[in-house]
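#struct-pred

JT: dropping the chains for the assembly here, can someone run the whole complex?
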Amino acid sequence: MKKHEIIQVCNLIVGYGEDIVLDTISFDVREGEIFIVLGESGCGKSTLLKHLIGLKKPLSGQIHIDGDDITNCDEATFKNILRKIGVLYQSTALFGSMTIAENVSLPIKEYTHLTQKSVDTLVKMKLNMVHLNGYENHLPSEISGGMRKRAGLARAMALNPKILFFDEPSAGLDPVTSVELDKLIVHLNKRLGTTMVIVTHELQSIFNVAHRVIMLDKQTKGIIAEGNPKHLKDHSDNPLVRNFFNRKSEH
Amino acid sequence: MDGFKDIQSCKYEISENHNGEITIYLQGKMDSGNASQLIELFGPLIKDRSPDSLTVDLKKITYLDDFGALVLVELRDMMTALKGHFNLKNAREEVLFTLGSETLAEPQSLIRVRPPNMFIRLGDAILRYATDVKYLISFVGSVCLAFTYSFLHPKSFRVDDTFLYMQKTGIDALPIVGMISFLMGLIMAFMSSVQLQMFGANIYVASLVSLAMTREFGPIMTAIIVAGRSGSSFASEIGTMQISEEVDALFTMGFDPTRYLAVPKILASVLVVPILTLFSDVFAIAGGLAVGVLMLDLTANAYILQTVKTLSLFDVLLGIFKSSIFAFLISWIGCLRGFRVRGGAASVGQATTSAVVSGIFLIILFDSIFALMLRYLG
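RK: done, full complex below.
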């Protein structure tokens, strides 16, 4: 059975003022898949992500998240969409003045009616899930970069959103920690069925986790490839795409 | 058996036999949408009936996430408290693993960490204070060295930045300094006139306003406004740079962060705050003049003549000298607090508050020292 499209992007034009970064792009993300947005630096990956999570308004076009258009909706619908998504920021964006447990419990306390004891238990479960048990009372500044990423992931997953967005999850991590994070992403995707949208240009991560990718291009300001990365690596018609996946320079 | 009832995509059915055994059959989804309702529903029921055994059948559960697992953990804990048996039927391996996790059995709460006792906190505060004083002294030395280097190597001066901070600290502050000083002059003239009118000495309102503002209130008021506007801004700017590792980047690129960041700010403040103080004096005298002319039947000419007669060059220069010292203290403490930022955003907030509070304290402290020196040195 074909899974339904949980994110639908139609004729999207995004940019800053007069400068158009992405021109009339359309794609969709299916429920439960790990979808990667990739491309060279400056091609608009992070800009696209900011539009997908509602931080920025596009110049034109629509972005449907689970059926609701995030670019043109009332406040109640927008809040409802935000409940369906979680974001792991590149810098993790954990609150520095709060412990890891307090960071994770923040959305749970805000959006559920659970008692403090239940919240504590749930936070432990979340931290177990990302292998951070025992670090509940640490401040973000007291743990390593890889642990901060996992804590950020636990906070992003606090309310079990339908879609998780990752902005450069492997950035700044050593290869071993990066592979562990990739494994965690795949495990969570299988276990919870969460749709994952990842913005990255880390080739190894792409091959490790992606079900499907789109590749953005700075020159054409659009999508130049879509599909399975392992297939695109050798069989793409576009030499730019093949070069990207094979780490080859044009010059 | 009462038949299946519904709670937000989860159906349940409760069966109870005469041996004090309860079985709950669950069907559908157990997730964040219904976890708290399920706990609120089953909790009182179990406490009320105190069964010897509770069995939860998950055969028809289609989706169960960690919120769902939480419901089972809560039910298990309730049964443990009642010294009864808790059984799961048709549970998936992950659910059994979650329930068997030892870390969930830890009794202490996560969030509320017990604060250390009074003596530990006192010792900690003393150590922090000592470190603060040490850094304070070393920063004085660092600023002196940076200024010396800059004067010996004028090309290293960041002229553009100095002009920018002169604009931010001086020109941008002029409207608020002017407005507050004018109102201060107005209030002082108005309050003193009530007393002086009784002796027919209205003209001395001009003397009082001009002398008080030029020697004391002008420099102090201006310095307090600058501490609130620029001292806090310096602390937050450098503090933010500190947490985003920009200060480290400067250091590793071979720049002296004090010379690069603090010198332009301190120099700009020392240059513009005395000028700002002069403006403050003029605006305050204008405020006094407005009261004198409009309420005390004095002529503008007489008021100005009395002001000129009262003020000496020493009074004006004293005010300017004091304000330049205040400017140095405000910008120095602002930069120092910024460099002391560690951790995250909350630390930047603390540094900003501390910069303003310490700045105002230093202003009042040094003004008292000046008052004593003038008293004893004549």
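JT: nice. Strands of chain B lie at 5-7, 10-16, 21-30, 53-64, 85-89. Chain B has a mean pLDDT of 88.
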